[in-house]
Amino acid sequence: MEKDLVDVGNQRQLLFDDFFFDRRDNIKLTLHPPTPREVVLESDKPWESKGVHYSSVIFDQGKYRMWYRSDEGESPREDGKEKQLTCYAESSDGVAWEKPDLGIYSWNGSTGNNIVMSPEHGANPSVIIDPNLETGSGRYKMILRAGRIAGFVSEDGLNWDYQATVVDTGRFDSHNALLWDDESRKYVVYARDMPEWTGPRRSIRRGESSDFKNWSHFETLITPDGEDPPDLNIYTNAAVKYFRAARSFFMFPMILYTERQYPGTPYPGLSDVQFLSSRDGINWNRNFRQPFLSPGLDERNWVDRNPIMGIGIVPTGPTEISMYHSELLRSKESRFRRCSLRTDGFVSVEGPYTGWGEFTTRPLQFEGQRLELNYSTSGGGGIQVEIQNEDGEPFDGYGLSDCPVIFGDKIAGFVDWSGVERLDRLAGQAIRLRVRLRDAHLYAFRFA
User: Fold this and answer.
1) Cβ atoms within 10 Å of 333's Cβ, excluding its own
2) If DSSP codes are grouped into helix, strand and coil, which group holds residue 199?
3) Rounded to 5°, angle at Cα 406 from 402 and 407
């Protein structure tokens, strides 16, 4: 059945699911895990004596900013558990980070630390910059967990004021995610839950608000299903709306297997991270059940709650994006590590080594003059693009025979048809793209 027309305008579109496919043959969707990079922050302060984790990173006016949770055990709570603090770090390049002395919170009689919030306000930060406000006390927004999920606002990201309770029912004692959805014009929170009908097993629910003060009822969205092992829990979510593309919501949940225990470790449970995607932030798919991020070769990570992906995707180079995850959480050396991906490179449409694969899109309507692709091929591989009318007939001059085989590796490469570059005469019409691939990956397209 043919799908409805999609207005893609001049926005970038990522190919992480079958949303754009009307017909497909001999292609597959391939998940691309990130590459582990350097350790960026270690638990080297006395108020971090029990570890650091649950980070939230943004890129703000040329500066990388991170808020994270630290557990300190030198002055425990009345129940004997460690105090949970919200701390801050910053970087000029996303690689070398520092913990500035902020002078905000007194710890052991000194404000010479990077703590921004006291334990009674909560921990597990998720921070956004509100694009609706250029200045003012609400420019930065944050949620924390402390017996409820609470919202806070700030003018500088360091000094925070309480705003409202987001939700106070359910089980949300882990890292919950806040984002701004520019398509629905809503603030959205994805929170952990443990509904009884799941076993109970940890799951993900969603609530939204138009003003960051009054929040909707939270609805359960994602639960373990029949394809999962019976001890699988969706522990965190690390939800984001990807900053470079339309219709691109991602989650990177820590998947906890409660009944497995690595030999020689004192704690039951093992973890890895999966990749989830959505076009609207409500309907999610788990097309890829394999790990997006796994514990790796360091045996100290083969214990529960390692690794945990933090919230946030930031650009760290012209061809690179980065994310940050915690590791070694059950040891005294807990820390954050950067991992990187090709820009837009979460998932690709992959063509076969032998012969050609292809797909034809549902009808599209666009603005712009040229077609831009994010692609990579082998030395012998290639890509061709045909532009068709809504009925599947190629426009004159834009057929496969008019398109020289494209090969190479580019984040933003343009398609030409026998020397014809501009697409002005097709803009605003209903068109289809027919794309052929051989030993090639196509990550995204955009009309520019």
Assistant:
1) 13
2) coil
3) 160
Tell me the domains of the chain and their CATH numbers: 6-30+347-447 (2.60.120.260), 35-342 (2.115.10.20)
DSSP string, 101-117: --S-S-BTTB--S-EEE
* % of the chain surpassing 90 pLDDT: 90
Contact between 285 and 29 under an 8 Å Cβ cutoff? The reply is no
Residues with Cβ within 8 Å of residue 391, at least 6 apart in sequence: none
How many other C-beta atoms are found inside a 10 Å radius of the C-beta of residue 110?
10
- Look up residue 47 and give its DSSP letter: G
- Taking the C-alpha atoms of residue 52 and residue 328, their distance in angstroms, rounded to an integer, is 9
Q: Identify whether the C-beta of residue 171 lies closer than 8 Å to the C-beta of residue 192.
A: yes
The answer to whether the CB of 246 falls within 8 A of the CB of 11 is: yes
- Of 89, 96, 85, 92, nearest to 39 (Cα)? 96
Q: CA-CA-CA-CA torsion for 352, 353, 354, 357, nearest 10 degrees?
A: 20
The DSSP bridge pattern shows strands 6-9 and 364-366 to be: parallel
Give 441's strand partners.
350, 376
Give the tokens for residue 64.
């990388």
Strands (E), 216-346: 219-222, 232-234, 240-241, 249-251, 254-257, 270-278, 284-293, 308-309, 314-317, 320-327, 335-342
d(CA 407, CA 414): 11
* pTM, entire model: 0.96
The model's pLDDT over 387-440, given as tens digits with 9 standing for 90+, comes to: 999 999 999 999 999 999 999 999 999 999 997 889 999 999 999 999 999 999
Going by C-alpha positions, the residue among 19, 13, 33, 11 that lies closest to residue 347 is 33
**Can you name the residues that pair with 35 across neighbouring β-strands?**
340
CA gap 147, 348 in Å, rounded: 41
Instruction: Report which DSSP code applies to 303.
Output: S
- What's the rounded Cα separation, in Å, for the pair 53 and 93? 21
CB atoms within 10 A of CB 141: 23
Tally of CB atoms within 10 A around 346: 25
Compute the distance between CA of residue 138 and CA of residue 125 in angstroms, rounded to an integer. 16
- For strands 149-154 and 160-167, give the pairing: antiparallel
For residue 315, say if its preceding peptide bond is cis, omega within 30 degrees of 0.
no
Question: Per DSSP, what are the bridge partners of residue 179?
Answer: 188
Question: Are 223 and 201 in contact, with CB atoms under 8 Å apart?
Answer: yes
Region 121-137: mean pLDDT is: 94
